[in-house]
Amino acid sequence: MPLNVHPDIASLSPYVPGKPIEELQRELGLVRIIKLASNENPLGPSMKALAALGQGIETLHRYPDGGAFRLREALADRWKVTPDQVILGNGSDEILGLLARTFLAPGDEAIMADQTFVIYKMEVMAAHGKPVIVPLKQWRHDLQAMADAITDRTRLLFLCNPNNPTGTMVSASEVERLLSRVPAHTIVVFDEAYFEYVRSRQFPDSMAYVKQGRNVIVLRTFSKIYGLAGLRIGYGVTTAEITNFLNRVRPPFNANSLAQRAALAALGDDEHVARSRSVNEAGMEQMVKGLTALGFSPIPSEANFLYVDIGRDGRLVFEAMLREGIIVRHIEGRMVRVTIGREEENREFLAALKLVIHSH
Ligand SMILES: Cc1ncc(COP(=O)(O)O)c(C=O)c1O
Question: What is the largest CA-CA distance in the chain?
């Protein structure tokens, strides 16, 4: 039977995630696999989060607290806002979808970069909005061009900072200039999934704009430095007015009970966060050095991954690396993204890459 699917949906392609370890094990019969494809924390979850999960399993027959009282309180306390300014998502991914469904009427515009997190475009199109694509300039968001692209119909402007897949950031002064040009009818979405890894002192204080009552939302996640990607939990901090609208669209139990518990414990585990940061810093240095020694020029990154022009067909390199038991991410053309792993993982990645580029 022919289906009647809206062209906005029919034209989408499903999101292609990083290849799961078990899939590669099945396909190639390899035992040891190193996954550097999805910007996960190579140290794993916080032990405190694991302990909290254990305590949560006996009440799995109950629905979660749909209002996520304790976690929202803790996040509000952390960011010095009120709990009604915090919204949780089944991953911050889900909040991107809520934003599109809540604020876009058919044909409304949403501005985003050409090379950025692909979910923005998918969610905007699924909500029948119009993605307005602004090319990166020297691998960074071109905030001037993004501001120029704003029209009466612009409802959302996505600013991925640091940007995935480039790892680059825009500074506080650049953001300040952008915001001076953003009208009230446009919500700026600061997607800061990699915030905790950032070292630059020029990084904007986006929460300050929330506190000023501007129409902005800051998205953060427990999937990256907190090491809880598998549980799916992220959050947004914004005005109470915006959460109020988002909550009308949000599924009532979108943040599951184990995720809520684990996130609360992880949020309090400063030691795990600090260790994860320092392992990333050391690994970043190791990877930049190693890639440079192989003749590549990775783009300087503020996150936990590097974006590299691999000098040849990136898909072939991705596939050849798979045969070496290493999963990276082919983004497009010659561009490959690699997550910073533990010291030995980085070492094995660099050794395998050396082998692969000599045969390609
Ligand atoms: C920029 C960016 N935003 C959001 C997400 C989604 O994270 P979550 O796991 O919280 O849905 C990711 C995950 O890769 C990301 O890179």
Answer: 58
Atom 15 (ligand 1) nearest CA = 193
Name the residue with the closest Cα to ligand 1, atom 7.
92
CB 48 within 8 A of CB 272: yes
Mutate to test the pocket of ligand 1, among 38, 218, 221 (most ligand atoms within 8 A of CB): 221
Stretch (H or E) spanning 220:
strand 216-221
Burial class (CB in 10 A: 0-12, 13-18, 19+), 297: exposed
Contacting residues for 146 by C-beta, under 8 A, at least 6 apart: 111, 113, 134, 157, 159, 178
DSSP strand pairing (305-309 vs 335-339): antiparallel
H-type alpha helices, 127-213: 143-148, 172-179, 206-211
Query: Which pLDDT tens digit goes with each residue over 178-229?
Result: 999 999 999 999 999 999 999 999 999 999 999 999 999 999 999 999 999 9
Cα separation of 18 and 226, whole Å? 19
91 lines ligand 1 (CB under 6 A): yes
* Residue 207: how many other CB atoms lie within 10 Å: 20
Quote the pTM value: 0.96
